[in-house]
């Protein structure tokens, strides 16, 4: 597998305070990787370093020459009252390379194609504020895909959406990855998203673990990442991360699970 980019000893800081320290990471052509960790752990900074919008204070990032990267920000950071339609919002990703103030026939066709591919082909004329959370996420995914990226970065792509939309987005990203697109996303959702990804990186300023969900979602790695003991249940062959308090509050039927705990492993 050929690498698209490689981080070596990467350290980034804001106002002199390190937010990402000595990170080593390689992303290959067919990778689908989730970055997990608590708020403030450096997940978004890692994506911005890949984009080149945050300069490292030490270490380096090697990128394949000519690498095309698409970026999908958190939908909460977008001004959805901005007066543009879905078509216009998607086309804006092309403004830097366009010579005419109006879209060409080819551009109209390309936008229509990517909207159709994402299941929102009938929404081109709708105002972006009229969309649901899942539709808004697909609009920004369409913006990124219009650039024909080799690597797609997504910052919390399922934040604020319902369970069905979360599953739809995950399946969509899986299809894009199987079609040859490398995908890296950040997520807080350990069970709904992270446990279903091929590869995970745990981050809390430093990388605390990497591997498959079965290798990474363990009590030891999670306690290093989140700074608190968590229990990991095995259900249907998949890890399920639970705060010990939730086992009491929600009365989880333990008989259906195999339980490991960082408290038990430490004793």
Radius of gyration: 20 Å
Q: State the major sheet.
A: 6 strands, mixed
Assembly type:
single chain
Q: Rough shape?
A: globular
Count of DSSP-assigned helices: 9
- Category by helix and strand content: alpha/beta
Distance between the termini: 41 Å
Beta-strand residue fraction? 25-35%
Unreliable residue runs: 247-267
- Whole-number mean pLDDT: 87
Could you characterize what this model shows?
The chain is globular, with a radius of gyration of 20 Å. Helices cover about 30% and strands about 30% of the residues. The protein has a six-stranded mixed beta sheet, sandwiched between helices. A three-stranded antiparallel beta sheet has the order 2-1-4, with helices on one face. It is built from nine helices and twelve strands. It is of the alpha/beta class. The chain starts with a strand and ends with a helix. The longest helix has 16 residues, at about 165-180.
Search tags:
267 residues, alpha/beta, 6-stranded mixed beta sheet, 3-stranded antiparallel beta sheet, 9 helices, globular, disordered C terminus
Tell me the layout of helices and strands:
Elements: E1 3-14, E2 17-28, E3 32-36, H1 43-51, E4 58-63, E5 69-72, H2 86-91, H3 105-117, H4 133-146, E6 151-155, H5 163-178, E7 182-187, E8 199-204, E9 206-211, H6 213-216, H7 219-226, E10 231-235, E11 238-242, H8 244-249, E12 258-261, H9 262-266
Parallel strand pairs: 3-7, 3-8, 5-6, 6-7
Antiparallel strand pairs: 1-2, 1-4, 8-9, 10-11, 10-12
Helix pairs in contact: 3-4
